[in-house]
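As agreed, record copied across for absentees:
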Amino acid sequence: MNQITKFLRKIALVVLALQVFFFSLFPVYWLFLTSIKPPTEWVAHPPSWFTLSPILSNYISLISPEAVSAYFEQYGYIIAQTKYSALVPIFNSLTISGGAAILAVIVGFLAAYSISRYGTGGRRMYFFVLTGRMFPPVAIAIPLVVMYSTLNLMDLHLGLILMYTGVTVPYVIWMMKSFLDEVPKEVEEAAILDGCSQFEAIIKVTVPMVKGGLVASALFVFILNWGEFAFALLFTNINAYTLPVQIQRFFSIAGFAHGPMSALSIMATIPMIIFGYMIQKHFVRGLTFGAVRGR
């Protein structure tokens, strides 16, 4: 009887796992399916779970809009955004997300080092720095708009880079402190005794020992910046608009152009899946290591 119970329990667990797997991946499947559907199937009722006439026009429209504009127009989708290549927001997102990630890692590493080595701000300082993330973006949006308008930073790459840096530095501090806690102070002291300055000891000894944490922090911050929408929508218009902003612009008198929107979403999602897989081990370790050791 026990064997039957164990067998039924295993079957139940397998069925549950398959259900979770299905519901987790179904949105991705539907997104990809929509990205290769013709316009007649975008909002078909009843919905088409498969397509027998896949097209690549949705993807081509992102790179060469002029080549397929007539194709969409015959279905009533006269979309202003199809006149512009998606390469522009891709470049903007790469520049802004990458620049902000690098700057946040530099600032966050130095702050985490100060907290880890010298106890700056007390034992709970690295908890305190996260309180800034508790405020919803709308709570600080209006003051930032006023400040950015005064400083002429609206619709500039530099403006979003500085904003994203300020928003994501707390995450870098949180992650890097646990990595720095692992590096013994004696290693740096030995380097100083060998003739290195304090800064040289950090660069030549400490940084190589926590490079895994630096890379993981940079990739995590890059992912956050890559998908950020609210600030990008408020503070950009023509020059520095990013991928999330471009995705919501595929709209016409016939409604949302779900095909190009899905195609661009797939293009934007693939790098994030790769980066997320690369940092998962380091990210979990960065969030839990300090708690496990009771620091």
User: Anything to note?
Assistant: DSSP finds 13 helices and two strands in the chain.
